[in-house]
Amino acid sequence: MTKIGLEIHCQLTKLESKLFCSCKANYREFEPNHNICPVCMGLPGSLPRLNQKAVKSATSIAMALNCQTPEKIAFFRKNYFYPDLPKNFQITQLNVYGDMSVGGEGYVDVEGKKIKIRRIQLEEDPGRLIYEGASDRTKITLVDYNRAGTPLVEIVTDPDFENPRQVRVFLNILSDLLENLGVSEPGLEGAMRADGNVSIEGGTKVEIKNIGSFHDLEKALHFELTRQQSLHERDIEIAMETRHWDDRRKITISSRSKEEDQDYRYFLENDIPWVKINQETRDILKKNMPESIGSKRERYVEKYDIAPQVADILSSDKYYSELFESAHDESNAKDIANLITTDLLGFIDTKEKREISKVTSQHLSDLVNAVNSKTLTRNSSKIALQEIVKSGKSVKDLLTEMDIGQVSDSSEIENIISQIFEEQKQAVIDAKERPETVNFLVGKVMQKTKGKADPVKTLELIKSKLEQ
Ligand SMILES: [Zn+2]
Description:
Blueprint: E1 3-11, H1 52-64, E2 72-73, E3 76-79, E4 89-92, E5 103-110, E6 113-124, E7 128-131, E8 141-144, E9 151-157, H2 164-181, E10 192-199, E11 206-209, H3 214-233, E12 241-246, E13 251-257, E14 267-268, E15 275-276, H4 279-287, H5 293-304, H6 308-316, H7 318-327, H8 333-347, H9 351-356, H10 361-372, H11 378-391, H12 395-401, H13 410-423, H14 425-433, H15 438-448, H16 455-467
Parallel strand pairs: 11-12
Antiparallel strand pairs: 1-9, 1-10, 2-15, 3-4, 3-14, 5-6, 6-9, 7-8, 10-11, 12-13
Helix pairs in contact: 2-3, 5-6, 6-7, 6-8, 7-10, 10-11, 13-15, 13-16, 15-16
């Protein structure tokens, strides 16, 4: 049987400062090595000071993942030598002598299967190594310490996944959950990284690291499973090791033999005292947590009668659910939900388009209300929305500017119907014989009026003209 486990690293990108100093958590906007100080560089005599908000964010994540959260937590030094680690140790957490990281023993439901969360720990991100060319052949490696000390949460699962597809579904759920909690922006480059470990029936565990995206993780897992199965079939022993994903060649390559915990010479970080997270603090955190995606989805379906697949899209995406929440009222919730998940979703289908989009919740409710009061046809509302996304103009202005107001005046529509009857003699004969073909004529009227004619009235008028 295939067993896959994950180690996910997620930066707390919504925090102001790093985990143990006042350098910015958002290191991305700095020139290399310009977001550093004696603390995150580990200079002699400097002392770390723990970012309280990071502890709270990490505890919220633990709670959202159904974990046990302890009364007090401790930090440890994980010693290893690597150019991206300025102190030669990483301040992290370890579960020894009882549960002392921010959370443990949780789970996530993935398509009816419980994926167990073994532990969640708060730690600092190392710096970044930038290679010139492939990492195993490079002659030059650059080091940027701007990222060193950024608050990072490590989430470790049990090896509960049976295939790479389940892994992808889980990561999507997790990424939506972190975004919904307001602690991280998983879409930012490097904000969410995942390593996998893979073993097949009777085999040893192999870790895969250095995976740039979730898409690549799925590919790397597939590659690794195939590699292990082929070794197994030829009776070759699978070595316990760490392998790196080579993004260019799309293969995993052996990088070093796997370290055991004892290789890291963990010891207690005595510069940071034990941190107490009392019951009251945990109660407040729990109370202030945003509504979960699951409960939002349920509410949308039950209260507003929104279709389950529409509710899925709305609830799992923080941006869309916030738009929906502020745009709808009791009477138009279903229409707003449909407008977002059909028309709007098509116009802002990438992160870049979403960022420059000018659409607001006011636009959405104005559009839906205009359609419901027959000032605008459904068709024209789509044209208007496309323009709003670009210009942000009000619905009222667009109605005059774009001349898209709905035509409900009977005599005006009758005139157009007469023209169409002249032009489409055969279709008129067909419609008299086979009433189901009448939609062709309705379509012609809509075409001529650029979608402005009231479709219900148009159908009525055509039908009565056919009977004359
Ligand atoms: Zn610093």
